[in-house]
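Its record is set out here:
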Amino acid sequence: MSMPRIHWDDLPAPARDAITERTGPVEKVETAQGGANSGFAARVHTASDVIFVKGMPAGHSQMPTQRREAAINPYLPPASPTLLWNVQEGGWDLLGYECILARHADYSPGSPDLHLVAAALEELQAIDSPPLPSVKTATARWAAHITDSAVLEGATLLHTDLAPHNVLVTDRAHLIDWAWPTRGAAWIDPAVIILRLMEAGHTAQDADQWAQRFSSWATAPAGGVEAFSTANAAVWAEIVGHDPLPWKQHMAELAKYWADYWQHVHQA
């Protein structure tokens, strides 16, 4: 569930002081417009640097996602922003990141960003998930919606939320917002991004073809992909049942369409 976004002056004074102790005197703060899972998210400018700070009330129900994001950071690809510090003060849990001045990725057909996104995901596909208790296995995450979750087993570190607002573009793509790191089969992330490509206007066939560049997807077991696609469609339907925002309804429709498409293609 999303949470309301507050501004710098709305943070408790002890929380602002804790940030300033780590950044130096603050000259300007720009509240971030994107994202919905942080109560505070902003670019904090000092005389010599810019730090991206995000956080939420320490007792919030979504705190486990922020704890996971902090724990996984040392194991991420070099292109992902480095976590500089984590502080709890004034009833808030705050993360200070290296700030990448960039724009969000464009996933639309023909976008020049697509080859940069593919390169970033290819880099991630080569990384094994660290043995952190906070990182769930894919089998555990989708177990409630899949009969044989063993098809999702693997050692790869997965992002699992590859929406374009979670990818920043400079001269390359940077994967951000690691609230749901997962250990599992490498082909799961290509399966996840296919839905986001379809959201941006790609056909199911074209999105599938785009994902063929990843060896994990090209060699993925058809039965495993079918099982995951059906489970993922069920997850999106469940999400809509709790929070029927239009974009979530659209994603649920795409997930169902993709699951039907995959089953049709591989039964033909």
